[in-house]
User: What shape does this take?
Amino acid sequence: MNAAVRAVVRSAVFYNKKVVGVFRGYDGLIAGDFIELNSRSVKNILNVGGTFLKSARSKEFMTLEGREKAYNQLKAQEIDALVVIGGNGSFTGAHIFHEEFGIPVIGIPGTIDNDLYGTDYTIGYDTASNTVTHCVDKIRDTAQSHNRLFIVEVMGRDSGFIALNAALATGAIEVILPEENKTFQELFVELERGASNKKTSNIIIAAEGNKLGNAFDIAAKVREQFPQLDVKVTILGHLQRGGSPSNFDRVIASKLGVAAIEGLLNGKTDVMAGIVNDKLAYTFLQQAIFNKATIDYELLRISKILAT
Ligand code: F6P
Assistant: This one.
């Protein structure tokens, strides 16, 4: 997100516009927690994860009263447009705010989950996928040396983009996604197949929002069915959301930050700037919110072929 903030600030300055940073997301908007930014304010942040502006989920912004306060803060500071970096929740707030008060808003997709319609990539997804891949590679060393089965739980409350990508990249025997209705029976069949193919180490990647349960629940069921297996659990958690961003994430954050400012200057509003088929694309926030990004089922098919 820092890389996107930097791109927004520097492109706005390039076009002779004033930029104000809002601390703590919508809570900061309501409180008027603002800071004037210039090109130097965003030096040396391109390579740093997170956002120096901080972020928060705001309950108050969900109320009309809260949004009214936010609007008054913007008016008082003569701020006439808003760039919002975030996911579904942030865009829902931005869309309603725009509808109620007419302030031009533009969204930049920032979530490691990659689950936004209207862009092939969200900022953070590539870095998180790489982090998971590196972590699973390390886990594989123990799995391999001790003939163990690891169930690795990755983030993805509602979507399995990270899980699927990482499963393919790490050679996992199975991936369990929120989008699927996999049964334990199907999982056991895969594990049987792995055993009959003389697999000695196994990794199962489970997205946290999968329907079979959390990694410990899954491990308990697998142990029941295969008492001979040494089953371990690793939950990667928030380490997936931090760290220096990948080259890819820095590049798309830079592109989208500039696209947000240029979009606003060209009169675009109530849209999200995204990348579709390698090209810049603006999608109405309402569409980005209500449509679901679908995982690549071709990747799932490939990962099944290669897990044999
Ligand atoms: O950003 C989305 C997400 O990473 C989900 O996959 C995950 O469930 C959630 O955030 C965790 O959020 P929190 O930091 O509030 O626990």
Summary: The chain is about 45% helix and 15% strand. The two ends are 38 Å apart (CA to CA). The mean pLDDT is 97.
